[in-house]
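Course assignment 3, question 2. Fill in each field.
Student: A.L.
Task: Predict the tertiary structure for the chain below.
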Amino acid sequence: MNACVIVGRANCGKTTFYTNFLRSLGYRDPKGEACPITLRWKRSVKACELVDTVSLVDGILPDAAARAGMARTLMLLASAYVVIHVVSAPLGAKGFRETTGAIDLLVSRYARRRKKYLLLANKCDLPGARTGIQELRAELGDQTIIPISATLQTGFHQVQEYLFNLL
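Answer field:
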């Protein structure tokens, strides 16, 4: 089954997206870090496995368990059929490069080369999100960016359609 792997930095909303996106698809009580799902679009049906991951950070973590989790995330990223990259849209005064750090830029470059890449600008309901999305577009050029609010479940229809087309 094709794995759709959710990656991103800490506190960007990966797990909230994972849980609420599954709920929006009709999965009542999603548990665990991976869930086989069925996407329906118009009259077609496609299946994949949605996978939540441990956060990626810049640098080397001192904790061995955290390093192991991050290594697993990188292995899942390398084997993913689709990469779902979640970033926080409100960037604040520091801007994209300083707020997201090198890891988000590296994930974006890597996944864009693979062609099966979905970038979600989360927290679009918060102040500063519009400016943050503009900075993302300026930094990443023609990359499709879907603004979402994982908490409010906005933008999920567009995510489902885009993901369906990537499968």
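Instructor remarks: Residues 3-166 form a domain with the Rossmann fold fold (CATH 3.40.50.300). The radius of gyration is 15 Å.
Grade: pending
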